[in-house]
## 1
Amino acid sequence: MVYPMAKLDWTLDPFSGIQQLQREMDRLFSGYTPAVEQFPALNLWISQDEAVLAAEVPGVDPKDVEVSVVGNVVTVAGERKADASAPAAEQHRCERECGAFSRSARLPYEVEAEKVQARYEHGVLRITLPRKENTKPRRIAITEE
Amino acid sequence: MTAQTDIQTKRFEQEQKLPVVAPATDVYESEKEIVLFVDVPGVSPDQIEVSLENRTLTISARRETQDPAEHKAVHREFGSAEYRRTFTLTKDVDRNAITARIKNGVLRLALPKAEAAQPRRIAVHAEG
């Protein structure tokens, strides 16, 4: 239902595999739950009338996020820029990747694209997608003869 | 057991149940300061705690998510959690000058190095 997009040029970084292994080891020995591997992490809720999609986009300016809907597929795309306030200095640890991202989710019904609302708070985006009126189930009255 | 301790025990149990997550962190070090960027999405500024004891820096935050009412969760990659991470600093920092600010779910922590820990350039004078 939710499919990932390629991470940033990880094939070009010879150390990314080592970093991932290190993270896995940390997780094994610390009992910590794994850090999210796909960016942004998504949560999806569905009801009869609407779908709610939440995406974790820490450090991403809301202006750099684009939410688009085509039929029943909703896409969250954008760019996570490098921290402007980072000092020009030696970097000991680099776990927060930056660059372009895109993730999509397929919903069980089409949505009213004009009525989609997106709210951003503390690095989390919450998108409310109302179901298209003509796709809602219609109750048919049964008449007795 | 009094009602009060009962509540406290319950709260403790609830807190214990939250999964502990190590937030992704970037660490920079310049001659003057150490700067950390920590991803803490979903955390409001009042729910984050940073403490420095000797040279042990601990960052902890509580993050609570709420499911929309009357919806069914069909896919879940994040939820309520306890962010926790500890670092051991190799240099003394100036405790009174530490600044922490949070923006768009990222904590920026600047720890200026103590005067004594900063590199000092020693001028060499040529003799004769």
## 2
Amino acid sequence: MISKNLDNINLEDFPVAIFGSGPAGITTALELEKKNIKCLLIEAGGEDYNEDSQEFYKGKIIGDKILDLSESRLRQLGGTSGHWGGTSKPLEEYTFELWPIKSDELKPYLKRTCEILNINNQFRKAPLSNFFNQVEFQYSGVKFADKYKNHIRNSKNITLVLNTQLSHFVGDNNNTRHALCISGKTIKNIRAKYFVLACGAIENSRLLLWSKVKNSGFLDNNLPIGKYWMTHPHELGGRGLISKKKLEEKMKNNFLGYDNFMHFSATKEFIIKKKILSASMYMLTQDVFRKDKIIDKEILKDILCVAPGYGKKLANMDFIKDIKCANIALLLEQEPIEENKVVLDDDKDKFGIPKVKLFFKQTELSIKTAKLFLEEFADLCRKEDLGRIAIKDSIYNLKKFELLEGYHQMGGTKMGVDKYNSVVNADLKVHDVDNLYVSGSSNFVTGGYTNPTFTIIQFAIRLAEKLNEKLGSA
Amino acid sequence: MKMLRRNFLKMFITSLSIISFVKFDSFFSYYKKRKLRKNKNFIWYLNDND
């Protein structure tokens, strides 16, 4: 069922209370429902987009420029999936090297994640060289509110309550007693056996930090809450042209296709050899960064200007069918550093909860990664005559990125083995608190180059399994 | 003995010629000299005969 507030809800009735109705929260609720476990799903926003609701997401950014925090997140049913692009892929195996779990542990949830996202369970990888793979993504059109609203409305096991803000958790002796929530003008305590915080990478940190302030001794002082925040530097890195025929000749039967985005990622060998972070690029045939579509002409003019000899060779090729002119967008990893963090601001929102200050600086290593990655690709293309690539001069000169987006927010409640370096364990349980779990990309240890939502859902399914085991054993 | 030596030399020379034929192309492409040219805000990575 769906309720617009907490009035008339029997709050003693739920073994699990989940805060946040984005992909992480809804997925765990759906999986618990299948196991016949009741859950209370709390959403701070309403059913649809609302500017007053978005006001709560305003915060300060200190350091390098990044997308406004109230634009990059949605405080409504379905969470930020309301405006995501749907680009989906599991994380690479090597991304898990610093995590307390390995990628194999998430494989059992691949199929179900694809079902939830309405995508094919196909993520092929084809070698282009020792340093590059062509990789396949799937594109989901699922907005969680649209897909699951009616299902939840008719559900007997899921009770979704809208317009209800979690303020903080109250607990002692390694146990969360209740969650204090504000619903309209009333304040209510929600009690459950297990609590799941799934409000997004910034909000998870904010609400845990506030819980720590409100209950001294409840959350361990050593927990690095808010720290190691990450995004994916997403940057227009260059432009160029590629010959389809020559790519196919080089990759033989492995070539994955050419018509949509063509993604290439760095291999583990490349990352180790050049000491860079993981990185990927995709070629856009249409210039999505500007409304006009004159990119092909522009690139061809450029190449004729800088390389007339090569231009003549191009004139002899079957232009339309064979040559792909494109802007190159980079999607890079940003290494987790302690200084990039979410902290509580002195400014408070309407409910008296401190807003956030996000400290963010681009790192030299991610800037260096962009240059080395593109340079290696450009050299491969010219040496093997696959095409010609140009790198944006700011990247060539190792200047800071002009980030295109800031929607991929990760870290802040990092997963790990001990409370000195991480906030949650491999089961997503907060260290030293028996019944408090955190779900979402805030738990990511490293970001890889892959969009985070697919992995968020895999973890959310796994969390439901863990909760089911706990409730069964209880 | 002479026969053996002749056969060995024949095989050696044949395999050398095959190896040089196979490797020649990649050897040649690998050492294409890089030439950089700036146009607008982009640095083009070109071969020197481009």
